[in-house]
Amino acid sequence: MSAEATNPVSAAEATGPDAPSRRRARARIDLRRxxxxxxxxxxxxxxxxxxxxxxxxxxxxxxxxxxxxxxxxAYVLAEFSHRGQYRKSGEPxxxxxLAVTLILAELGAETTTLTASLLHDTVEDTDxxxxxxxxQFGDEVAYLVDGVTKLEKVDYGAAAEPETFRKMLxxxxxDVRVMSIKLADRLHNMRTLGVMRPEKQxxxxxxxxDVLIPLAERxxxxxxKTELEDLVxxxxxxxxxxxxxxxxxxxxxxxxxxxxxxDAVSAVLREADIPAEVLIRPRHFVSVHRxxxxxxxxxxxxxxxLLVLVNEDADCYGVLGELHTCFTPVIxxxxxxxxxxxxxxxxxxxxxxxxxDGAVAEVLIRTHQMHKVAEAGxxxxxxxxxPPATADAGAEAAEDGERADPTRPGWLSRLLDWQEATPDPxxxxxxxxxxxxxxxxxxxxxADGGTxxxxxxxxxxxxxxxxxxxxxxxxxxxxxxGRLATLSxxxxxxxxxxxxxxxxxxxGPSPQWLDHARTQAARIAITTWLxxxxxxxxxxxxxxxxxxxxxxxxxxxxxxxxxxxxxATAAVRPAGCxxxxxxxxxxxxxxxxxxxxxxxxxxxxxxxxxxxxxxxVVVHWGDTAECRVTLVAESFGRxxxxxxxxxAIAGAGVAVVAATVEPPSEQRVRHTYTLQLPDAAGLPALxxxxxxxxxxxxxxxxxxxxxxQD
Length: 710
Known about the structure:
28 helices, disordered N terminus, about 45% helix, disordered C terminus, six-stranded mixed sheet, elongated, alpha+beta, about 15% strand, single chain
């Protein structure tokens, strides 16, 4: 973000002493020297400028066959267009796009992303036009530059934040490389935030903490996320930051305990003939701070973790078996993110083992490719528009429903759906921040064998909307681990969930579902439906209807008109097997006695009548709203259930004509009610009110066996 460019500060200090050894072997670039080279360094016609040599070196480390000519052309254009521009610290402005591009190159970004990164400020801050970028570098580069430029044009002030990040997500939704460039841009600006006014530093740090760091987490770019976390930590919590830095400095020998365990692990794996690389991975400042809050006094092994890198997926489990055999495992620390990857592509085995002397070490086990993705996330995917190199790769991408298109992660698609469903920027901003704040995840298994990633504390309501989208409006209940459960049931990691959907298309969510919805996807879907159906949002007793008199005359309900040949007349009555009510689609048949029986179109009796050769009679609803219907409520047995159901029905202003209760079976009870409604439009609200009675897991219209002799 060019408007916030400032002096460099000590990035190594802000990110912890482990940062260079963990992410790269090269020392941090001297931006002042790089800037001077950009302006004054000689450039031969047949090689890249000296100033971009570091970028070329980092890029070739990941992409040995990359064509560097396009990078040279992009650098020349960027340097020329920014010539004469300086950052607030006095550095030539070209140092900023170079630093951003170097960050991405070290993460393994492909050439198109690096080209756009070099040019990302040219359209905004210079006379270069987007058409010129497109003409020289193609549509892809132009699209990426335009996406980043749109994000830069809106101020990050408090009033502008909602619309800013709405635009950011729209741009990101079409190509996540836009967000990759934005994150690298923010990282370099955070590294050089030192000369800003303190209040502006705090404002920028809060936006980074609330939105950009969680987005980096969801894009899987851990290398950027961890450094941003430390930089924000130093600005927003300077006292805790200094205490943590002092703690790390006082425990410089803490790595000895991990080194001893690492040597023992290496020896075990060599003996087992498993090729592996065992590394010590120091924790960054925020991680050390969190561990200290969780455990109090820290031991030597708490300042880092062991990272075991192998070649094949199967070797990961081989390493796990050897570790759990030769050391004492801490079972509560085991997590398998290879069998069930996290939503941001992360895959790894997590465990902890205790050495004979009692020292405990956390261990991460992954392949080299998993490690690359864990550090760089979507950046490691390369160009999402490049066709797969092999047929197998293409098949693998097609089978992965969550990320069939790497430019549209599943969670990002959901965010884009929300922003379309919530035109108010402030509402979207609140929803976005709430969703991004969820930093703990559970995995539940669907009945069809798939999985759902949900935030910790999610309920069956959340699972319903995550799996079925808007169809979840008709969800009645669920089976959790094979047992019937209410929609308010809170799920835990590893649960198996089978969601039960109503067959009635008029079903909709209850306002009380909002009390159980943890995910923003569920809350926005429920709120949108309730806003479109305001009558459903009213409490049953908010506008009670006067009770109707009880009558056993079937013809006293809704008027149904039949179109008979000539001027013939006949009594018309709704069939007891399906109890049709407005606005159901209906069909009539003449039966013995000359009367017309009216069925719902989907009733089994309609097919039975047709098989007997009965000709249907055209029927339609009259203008009377009153109707009679039979409902079946299925519930778990408990005291006072019948009284509570009857009270819910009476509270809706509905008269009970008849009621039967079947004997309990396996703690489940079936109630059948014949009800007289003053208005057929109140049926969906009545069914919701009955479903909201504790213990009730399904309410449906009665369906009796077909009877052609009706």
